[in-house]
Amino acid sequence: MCGRYVVSQSVDDLADEFDVDRVDVKERLEPDWNVAPSKPVYGVLTRHRRDEPDAGAQRRIRTLRWGLVPSWADDPTIGNKLINARVETAAQKPSFRRAFARRRCLLPAEGFYEWRGETKGKKQPFFIHPPEGTLAMAGLYEIWRDQSRPDDDPDAFLWSAVILTTDATDDVGEIHPRMPMLVDRASWAEWLDPDRTDTDGLTSMLAPATPGTLDAYPVSTEVNRVANNGPQLIDPVTL
């Protein structure tokens, strides 16, 4: 699974790295070394322009809330439970199948945290990251409509996202059996294409990270508290 991750780059840097056509954010997020569920995060997605439907789809970066709220949900608090989705079954699950078919995204991260150990409260956190560059975690997004608000209220629509997970590679699996599904740059366009709806083809396109492409090292248990933040959280510690 993935329960915390790191994004310290600016939205402009991420827009350049992910070849974005449009930056669609109301407020720029502060660097975050302890991204937790329910927080706002940056997501990269491709959508058609409503004012020019024939102009072609645009790749955008926008703010999403981590924790997917299906469009049919009565209450947005369901998103607190839907932070991860297994890639093996997401295309069939009622909470995710509509998003898997048409609303896929990338969630940029410098790395993510996982915990190793059997005893609750005494597990050791590790920071898992690429030697360089940014991870593109496979995600799904949804747009939930708050029926209690008028249509012209900008807060009537909640954009939210879930991270897809897969079996961890051997080196990462020693820490935790699951990890975020990563999308390589060559597959970004296909994964984000809203006109591609063949879920079997999309699922087969995804593959776990190649063993040896991620590094991991232990970090302080300070990361366990969501209120803690700052670059010191990814400093290595000696066990």
UniProtKB/TrEMBL annotation:
Sorted UniProt keywords: Covalent protein-DNA linkage, DNA damage, DNA-binding, Hydrolase, Lyase, Protease
Gene3D superfamilies given in the database record: SOS response associated peptidase-like (3.90.1680.10)
GO biological process, one term: protein-DNA covalent cross-linking repair
Molecular functions (GO terms): lyase activity; peptidase activity; single-stranded DNA binding
E.C. number: 3.4.-.-
Database matches in InterPro entries: SRAP, SRAP-like
Signal peptide per UniProt: none
Pfam families per UniProt: SRAP (PF02586)
Family as reported in the entry's similarity comment: Belongs to the SOS response-associated peptidase family.
UniProt-recorded name of the protein: Abasic site processing protein
Lineage, opening ranks: Bacteria, Bacillati, Actinomycetota, Actinomycetes, Jiangellales
